[in-house]
């Protein structure tokens, strides 16, 4: 099952990457926070500090905060967001 559908790239999410070490993904509505964290850690070889989710307009957004050892801007650059 594919949990992460796409990465959000807006002005607000880029600011969150730079200031808060948070990357925002659009995810399947049925997945749990621990499944999202596990998927991000396995795919991108990073450690997740926390996951917050928000359902809006029939879409679920996952706000994934990385630990201080990993820089979200580096991951975003690798994914082509920055």
Structure description:
Helix content is 37%, strand content 33%. It is of the alpha+beta class. The protein has one domain (4-79): 2-Layer Sandwich (Alpha-Beta Plaits), CATH 3.30.70. The longest helix has 12 residues, at 33-44. The model has no long low-confidence stretch (mean pLDDT 90).
Q: Give the low-pLDDT segments.
A: none
Q: CATH homologous superfamily?
A: RRM (RNA recognition motif) domain
SS element count, helices = 3
Sheet having the most strands: 4 strands, antiparallel
Q: Estimate nothing, just give the exact number of structural domains.
A: 1
What order do the helices and strands follow?
Answer: EHEHEEH
C-alpha Rg (nearest Å): 12 Å
Q: Can you give the helix content as a percent range?
A: 25-40%
CATH architecture annotation name: 2-Layer Sandwich
Biggest sheet strand line-up? 1-2-4-3
What's the overall average pLDDT, rounded?
90
* Proportion of beta-strand residues: 25-35%
Shape category: globular
CATH topology: Alpha-Beta Plaits
Structural class given helices, strands, pairing? alpha+beta
The N- and C-terminal alpha carbons lie at a distance of 27 Å
Give the class-level CATH name: Alpha Beta
- Please report the total strand number as a whole number: 4
């Amino acid at each position: 099952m594919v949990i992460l559908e796409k990465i959000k790239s807006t002005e607000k999410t880029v600011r969150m990457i730079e200031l808060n070490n948070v990357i925002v993904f659009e995810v399947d509505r049925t997945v749990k926070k621990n499944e999202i964290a596990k998927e991000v850690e396995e795919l991108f070889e990073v450690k997740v500090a926390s996951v917050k989710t928000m359902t809006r307009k029939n879409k679920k957004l996952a706000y994934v905060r990385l630990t201080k050892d990993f820089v979200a801007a580096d991951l975003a650059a690798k994914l082509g967001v920055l």
